Amino acid sequence: MTRPNALKLETFLPYRLSVVSNLVSDVIATAYERLFALKIPEWRLIAVIAESDGITQQNIGAKTRMDKVTVSRAAIALIDRTLIERRPNPDDGRSHRLYLTATGRILYEQVAPKALELEARIFAAFDTEQLVSFGQMLARIEQAALEAGEVS
Questions:
Q1: I want to staple 83 with a disulfide (CB 3.0 to 4.6 A). Which of 25, 63, 104, 136 is the partner?
Q2: Contact assessment for residue 126 and residue 110, using Cβ atoms and an 8 Å cutoff
Q3: Residue 45: is its pLDDT beyond 80?
Q4: Any idea what the CATH number is for the domain that residue 65 is in?
Q5: CA max distance for the chain
Q6: Which DSSP letter does residue 100 get?
Q7: Average pLDDT value for the chain
């Protein structure tokens, strides 16, 4: 017998959002690993660094919602592959900024079109209006989650 207010995972939106997010990430991760030998955290670092003029690991963590251990491990892997480099942070002598190397920039220019292609394939069944609406809903969900986190 089911209680009227019983939790059912298949209809619990936070659970469904997480499952779909993980599925999309897995599809992308498989492609990036196969094509570019990149894990998702490594690709996220490359993309965030490409959009900045040097960025600290702490700022990457805040921007991507990845924990500092994941950011650190990804940074080390990318430095070892000479895709990014660390330079002193002129604003704070205790930290460093990360920058793409020339090799990292070339890789980014190869990966970015593939990312856009995968996005287009995943969302091909939706029209522009639906995608705009979905983007707005995601922004509202993000804001609501941040506000809910402040209360708890």
A1: 104
A2: no
A3: yes
A4: 1.10.10.10
A5: 64
A6: E
A7: 92
Judged on CB neighbours under 10 Å (0-12, 13-18, 19+), 99 is: middle
Residue 146 lies in a domain: no
Residue-level pLDDT at 23? 93
Asked, for residue 102, whether it belongs to a domain, the answer is yes
Q: Residue 106: left if φ>0, alpha if ψ -120 to 50, beta else—which one?
A: alpha
Per DSSP, the three-state class of 144 is: helix
Whether the pTM exceeds 0.85: the reply is: no
Summarised one tens digit per residue, pLDDT across range 58-93 is 999 999 999 999 999 999 999 999 999 999 988 888
Number of domains in the chain: 1
Domain that holds residue 112: 11-124
Q: How many CA atoms lie within 13 A of 74 on its CB side?
A: 25
Residue 80 one-letter amino acid? D
Which tokens is 46 given?
């490359």
Query: What region, left, alpha or beta, does residue 98 occupy, with left being phi > 0 and alpha being psi -120 to 50 degrees?
Result: beta
